[in-house]
Structures are given as C-alpha cells and as structure tokens.
Amino acid sequence: MDALCAALGVSVGEVEDVVANGSKQRYELADGHIRARYGHSLPGHVEMPPADPPPVLFHGTGAGSVEAILRDGLHAGGRQWVHLSPSPETARAVGARHGRPVVLTVDARAAAADGAVFHRGNDDTWLTDDLAPRYLRRP
C-alpha cells in the first residue's frame, strides 16, 4: 500500500475511499495490500466464498461470438472466471464493449443444481467456472 500511495502521490485514505466507494467494487484491501477482487492476472482462483445465484443471470457478448458460445459454452479465457450480470441491462453494456451487443440468458439455477459454484464479485458481477451450452439461451 505504501509503495502504491508513493507512486501515485495519494494518501492511504484516498486509496481506501476508492476501494470502498468505487463504482465497480473491483478492489479489496487485505493485510495492508490492495488487490483486484477477481485476480485477473494471478494464476489460480482468488479465494471467494460461494454464493447462491439468482435463478437467472445474463452474459453480454458481441454478436460475432454468439454462435461459438451457444455451441461450446462460456469459458473464462484469459480471466479466472466467467463473468455474468444480474440484469440484461448490465449485460448489454458489457456486450457493447465487443461490438453489437447480444445478451444471453443463463439458467443459473440449473447450473448450480448440477454442481456449478457461483461467487458474488460485486453488485453487478457474478463469477463461475466454465458453463456448458445447455445453460445458455438467446432471449
């Protein structure tokens, strides 16, 4: 934390404020260190407690990826987790980053019943491992 504050020219309090009040809740403080909650750049999974997902979640993607996703399922790719959204609006905003957005519906209830483990990343993000195509559909 000290090295980060020195490099950015900010106080510990300012960093703590960003962590506590950042719009996407991407960071957390632990033992005087700051880290990304999802651990994008670390090997293996960041420890997060499992959570019961809502019955339906959403995945936003670009139109060019839809057929492959519906055929092969969702995969974390370069991330540690598959990222899902609690609302179609949030998923649409995510999908818009990848071209013309398409929102897929995820049957989280069925996936969880079949053993998929979900984690609450923040208010706008649910995380899980790869999901088979049988849990996905176009709305």
Automatic annotation (TrEMBL):
Q: Which SUPFAM superfamilies does the record cross-reference, listed alphabetically?
A: ADP-ribosylation (SSF56399)
- This chain's protein is named RNA 2'-phosphotransferase
What taxonomic classification does the UniProt entry list for its organism?
Bacteria, Bacillati, Actinomycetota, Actinomycetes, Pseudonocardiales
Task: Name the source's superkingdom.
Answer: Bacteria
* Database matches in Gene3D superfamilies: 3.20.170.30
Q: Which organism is it from?
A: Actinomycetospora rhizophila
**What is any Pfam family matched here?**
PTS_2-RNA
**Keywords for this protein:** NAD, Transferase
Q: Which InterPro entries match?
A: Ptrans_KptA/Tpt1, RNA_2'-PTrans_C
Q: Where is the signal peptide?
A: none
- Which family does the similarity line name? Belongs to the KptA/TPT1 family.
